Each structure stands twice: as structure tokens, then as C-alpha cells.
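C-alpha cells for chain A. Residues wanted.
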């Protein structure tokens, strides 16, 4: 006996769900648009605040470089600051007046990135068999070797004084009657947009890497190197690629850092503490997660370079600490706050604030990756 059934219809998704879904999938474009408009509506970004935010962008690039090693490939790297410094010094040697090269910023940055990539390969080749703590010790030792070398080669690196003045990007270039070098020197917004553009390019590159064959091979080596080799993946090539890519992106961050400061600073600026701070940002945000890494940097570095100076200035204005006592200053407690934040995150959310779905599934029993 036939029965009449109403045709099945699928109700369209709610507009709000569609909007939120679009924003979640295209968060890079939304964030880039907001950050691009910000200097036009926030006058403070044309001053000291603009320099602080630019510094934040540079650290985001450095953290994304480390995320390739630690987050994607699962290799513990405690010397990322050394490649940060190599990139900065390579750029300076190729541009400062004391050397005869004095090539443009773009060409110098490309060469510096290639040099840091080659250095990463040189470090990775003899350490391919090392894992876990042993690899961490090797990268830690390499970072110390680089720092001491930069300090002792005074005739090349300037020793503790560093190399300066590093010309601004666009020095000597005139476009439509505008001296780009002068504009970079007097208006922080020019460097703000340059660093933002570099960060956007790195984010797009990392997103493409995640969805590529190499990106899947990196994750396969992280999860089970033996099983990956059984499936025909060359763990040697994958690890060397991770070392090269991570070092190259860190070198790019170093180029931007030296150009923004007009100096390389002293070698202690690229020590173990900086490597650990970047590693903490990656862990706090979520290993293997691009938005998590950016959030971790925004919290840790933004807290240290933006919030802490503002809080100290407010304390002085309110005359709360007229004698300048360290225990009444906000900056005096920042390391303790860092430690408490990391302990809480590791205790209650070990996968990080915005983890990758695959890593979150690994850390929770019964979870399934995607």
C-alpha cells in the first residue's frame, strides 16, 4: 500500500552561522584588513605604539618559523634566536656604510634568507639521527656558539656594539617624488605596513605548506617516523626541509628586526632567553596551529612590549610608586606572570589556547584527527 510522504527539504543555514563560518575560514583576510586599516583610525600607531606593534609582527614571523620545527615536525629546537641573529647580521653586513657592498634592502634580505637556510641545512645534516633531548641540547649549543662568535668577531660584527647604522628599506630610492628611505626613517607606519606584508606572506605560505604533500609528510614524521618511512616518506629529506624552511623564515624576521632598529643590537639580543620566549609563545598558543602561534606571541610579546610599559607609565602618572621600587612596578612581575600563565595552560589546556585539530585529538583519548 502506497503512502503519501512529504518531500524532504533541507533548511538553509542560519545567516549568522554562515557569517561566523566565513570569518572562521577566512580569519587571515579579516585580520589583515583590520590591521591594514588600524593606522588610519588610530593615530598612536604613527608614533611609539606603531614601532611596538611592528616589533610584534616580527616576533610573529619568528614564532611561525619555530612552529615548522616544533609544531609540524615535532623536533625540539632551542636555538631559533641564533638564526634570527644570523639574518640580522647578514643584512647589516650587506648594507651598512662600513662595508663596500651597500646593496639594497630587498637584495640583502634575499641573500640573508638564503644564508640562514644554508646554515639550517648545515646544522640539520649531522643531527638527523638525534631526537628529543639530544637534539634540544645540540640546538641549544649551536645558539650559544653563534652568540659567542658574533661577540668575538669584532672586526666583522662590531662585537658588543653591533653594526650600525643599518639603512632603512628603500634608502636611495625615489618613487613619484617620494624618498622612500626618508619616509621609512620618519614615519613608523611605513615599516608597520612592510612588516605586516611580510607576516601576511609568511602566513599564506604556512597555510599552503599545511595542505601540501610536504606538510603532510612533516606531520607524518612527527606522529610516527617509522610508519612514515614504511609508507615511502624520506624522513631525512623531510627533516632537512624543516630545518631549511624554519631557518629561512627566522632569517627574514632577523632582517626586518635589524632594519627596524637601524642596528643589529648586541649579540646578547639573540640569546637563549629569546629562543625560550618564542618557544613558550608557540606552546601557549598551540603547537602546529597558525592562529594559535600568533595568539601566543600577541599574549607574551604584546604583554612584554606593549602592556607592561603602558602599565608602568600609568603607575607613574598615578604616583603609586614615587620611589621607583621594583616590587611596585608592573614590569618587575612580568616573568612571574609568564610562569603562572604557562603553568595554568599546561595544567588545564595542554594542547594550547587554539590547537590544531590533529594535535588536540592526539592529546585527548578517543579524539579523532582530521
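Reply:
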Amino acid at each position: 500500500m502506497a503512502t503519501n510522504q512529504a518531500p524532504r527539504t533541507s533548511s538553509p543555514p542560519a545567516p549568522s552561522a554562515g557569517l561566523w563560518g566565513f570569518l572562521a575560514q577566512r580569519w587571515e583576510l579579516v585580520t589583515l584588513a583590520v590591521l591594514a586599516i588600524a593606522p588610519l583610525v588610530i593615530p598612536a600607531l604613527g608614533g611609539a605604539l606603531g614601532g611596538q606593534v611592528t616589533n610584534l609582527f616580527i616576533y610573529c614571523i619568528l614564532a611561525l618559523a619555530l612552529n615548522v620545527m616544533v609544531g609540524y615536525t615535532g623536533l625540539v629546537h632551542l636555538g631559533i634566536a641564533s638564526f634570527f641573529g644570523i639574518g640580522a647580521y647578514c643584512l647589516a653586513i650587506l648594507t651598512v656604510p662600513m662595508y663596500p657592498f651597500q646593496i639594497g634592502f630587498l637584495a640583502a634580505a634575499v641573500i640573508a634568507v638564503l644564508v640562514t637556510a644554508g646554515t639550517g641545512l648545515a646544522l640539520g645534516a649531522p643531527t638527523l639521527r638525534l631526537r628529543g633531548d639530544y637534539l634540544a641540547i645540540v640546538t641549544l649549543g649551536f645558539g650559544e656558539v653563534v652568540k659567542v662568535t658574533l661577540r668575538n668577531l669584532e672586526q666583522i660584527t662590531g662585537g658588543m656594539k653591533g653594526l650600525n647604522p643599518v639603512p632603512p628599506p628603500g634608502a636611495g630610492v625615489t618613487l613619484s617624488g617620494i624618498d622612500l628611505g626618508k619616509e621609512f626613517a620618519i614615519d613608523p607606519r611605513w615599516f608597520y605596513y612592510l612588516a605586516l606584508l611580510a607576516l601576511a606572506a609568511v602566513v599564506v605560505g604556512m597555510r599552503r605548506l599545511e595542505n601540501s604533500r610536504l606538510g603532510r609528510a612533516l606531520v607524518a614524521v612527527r606522529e610516527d617516523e617509522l610508519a612514515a618511512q614504511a609508507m615511502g616518506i624520506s624522513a631525512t629529506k623531510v627533516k632537512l626541509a624543516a630545518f631549511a624552511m624554519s631557518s629561512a623564515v627566522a632569517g627574514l624576521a632577523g632582517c626586518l628586526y635589524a632594519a627596524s632598529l637601524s642596528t643589529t643590537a648586541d649579540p646578547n639580543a639573540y640569546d637563549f632567553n629569546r629562543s625560550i620566549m618564542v618557544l613558550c609563545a608557540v606552546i601557549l598558543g598551540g603547537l602546529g596551529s597558525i592562529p594559535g602561534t600568533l595568539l601566543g606571541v600577541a599574549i607574551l610579546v604584546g604583554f612584554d612590549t606593549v602592556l607592561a610599559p603602558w602599565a608602568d607609565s600609568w603607575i607613574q602618572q598615578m604616583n603609586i610608586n614615587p620611589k621607583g621600587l621594583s616590587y611596585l612596578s608592573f614590569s618587575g612581575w612580568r616573568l612571574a606572570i609568564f610562569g603562572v600563565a604557562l603553568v595554568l595552560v599546561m595544567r588545564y589546556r595542554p594542547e594550547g589556547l587554539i590547537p590544531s585539530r590533529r594535535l588536540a585529538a592526539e592529546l585527548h583519548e578517543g579524539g579523532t584527527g582530521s
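Confidence is low (pLDDT under 50) at residues 6-16, 366-370. Residues 27-271 form one domain.
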